[in-house]
Amino acid sequence: MLDDVEVVGVYALPLTERFRRTDVREGVLLRGPAGWGEFCPFPEYSDAACVPWLAGALEAATVGWPAPVRDVVPVNCIVPAVAPARAAELVRASGCATAKVKVADPGQTLADDVARVAAVRAALGAAGAVRVDANGAWSVAGAVEAVTVLDDAAGGLEYVEQPCASVEELAAVRRSVSVPVAADESIRLASDPLTVALAGAADVAVIKCLPLGGVSAALAVAEACGLPVVVSSALESSVGLAASVALAAALPSLPFACGLGTVSLFARDSVPAEASLRPLGGALSVAAPVPTAASLAAALTSDDGRRAWWTARLERVASLLDAP
């Protein structure tokens, strides 16, 4: 499969805020007959788990995406596990009407989360929507307690994303709270995404494009799960994020703002600043930005050791993708 593309290089892009325990985002940029693709599974993922990420990158570079049904995608701003004052600053600067707040971060308390959520609500105003994401960190009892308290701090939560790890736990939380529950990892890791809906575990499906194998594969998952969909980023640069924007643009219905404002967390991007997929007025235009020689020179700054690590990883994953 790699014979059909050019491996352009390994990028290293610093973040302005620590997010998902990441300070520098790394990945590989590919170029093919249909455009650019990005292979950027997180370092801790197994080679087998990386196969869909490579399939998505190759789809972008060699096949392309379905035609869009909308030209603009509404997005939420991202609030990492930062202090309340910084959280409010991020919300005000974003121009978004919806904020997604990270909670249950290692080393922090529920009181920290409450203060952050309250600051976000104050900055967003009464008309905005606040959602929280726990990345599966809570137990059922802990989730019920936290969601109740955070719902009060937010003056009403739009939904809570992945409060617990398992489908069974999500269903138990959903039966116990009035706040809608969104499933992220539970859908991405499920052998059959429809099981999440059938188990009564979620009201909303959070779909991530590259971890599911690209736009066409993610569209099939969205249809199979039978729930309203929010398209969310996997912390890609603008090259990879373009696939997620294409997915959101191709969905028949898009009832919620999408979690695609993450390029705002990057100190620099893989494409020129004027083409970067940063939200404007709480939305993204549907586009596939292209790197330039200058943006590549700024992005492809990984050291020899990291380049060798990513090159070896790419080759191993490609061999799995090619295997019968």
Automatic annotation (TrEMBL):
What Pfam families does the database record attribute to this sequence? Enolase_like_N, MR_MLE_C
Enumerate the GO terms in the molecular function aspect.
Answer: O-succinylbenzoate synthase activity
Q: Give all residue intervals belonging to the Mandelate racemase/muconate lactonizing enzyme C-terminal domain.
A: 80-180
Q: Which InterPro entries is this protein grouped with? A: Enolase-like_C_sf, Enolase_C-like, Mandelate_racemase_C, OSB_synthase_MenC1
Q: Which cofactor does it need?
A: a divalent metal cation
Catalyzed reactions per annotation: (1R,6R)-6-hydroxy-2-succinyl-cyclohexa-2,4-diene-1-carboxylate = 2-succinylbenzoate + H2O
Q: Which EC number(s) does the record attach to this protein? A: 4.2.1.113
Per the Swiss-Prot or TrEMBL record, the active site comprises 102, 208
TM helices/strands, residue ranges: none
Which UniProt keyword terms apply here? Lyase, Magnesium, Menaquinone biosynthesis, Metal-binding
What function does this protein fulfil? Converts 2-succinyl-6-hydroxy-2,4-cyclohexadiene-1-carboxylate (SHCHC) to 2-succinylbenzoate (OSB).
**What PANTHER family does the database record attribute to this sequence?**
O-SUCCINYLBENZOATE SYNTHASE, O-SUCCINYLBENZOATE SYNTHASE-RELATED
Q: Family assignment?
A: Belongs to the mandelate racemase/muconate lactonizing enzyme family. MenC type 1 subfamily.
Protein name per Swiss-Prot or TrEMBL: o-succinylbenzoate synthase
